User: What shape does this take?
Amino acid sequence: MSTQSVHDAALAALLLCEPDAKCQATAALLEAWRAGAAVVSSGADVAVPVVDAGRPARPLLVPPQEVPLRKAGRREGHAALLHAIAHIEFNAINLALDCVYRFRALPADFHEGWLVVAAEEASHFRLVRARLRALGCDYGDFPAHNGLWEMACKTADDALARMALVPRVLEARGLDATPPIMAKLRAVGDADSVAVLEIILRDEIGHVALGDRWFRVLCAERGLEPEATYLQLIDDFGAPRPRPPLHIEARRAAGFSAAELVRLSGKVQE
Assistant: This one.
């Protein structure tokens, strides 16, 4: 059986622009890994960021403050809310693939974990896109911002910073945001989208937990205290601090300690 570098294959999937092709390639890569047809290649991490990750020509990317706010009670606002979730899930595919491509000095179970995450994010994207289409819209119909990928580029040269600031900061914000979004969708009678978000929330706890696990492993290797290091990295990179209400149960399940959550809540910026 011939084998391929899992890193090269992850980069190839990462650079695909067409969403269905990216989702298919991501699922196929996980299958190849499980079949032993994709393997870790020994070598150093790749420090140079992939500035232009594969994405379709639309949506139009604008600064975060220029993404218009719309009320979910109206059809356009309802669709825009789902579109924002689809955009996060699409970016999350690229984020997971980038971990596999980039941090090749880490062991095989690191890569397997992020391959599973990438495949789950692809499934999430397809589920949310189906809900968008049910409303007569599609991915790309609304503007979006590139904050997730910008943070990936900023942390390209350090696995510890990546684990801290993407899973434990940006993706953990999704744990907090999802219950209020579900409440908005229930209020407009969209039970099907609520069911999709229940799946996403369940899986995202695992994704944040994977980042938490490797963040703590890397801190231990470098002799760093994890929770103090986390706060320092947030400050060093200008990452957003959590805003209440925090989803305490989900964050605890994802690896945040009770003391850390008290500290984070106490440092919320108004």
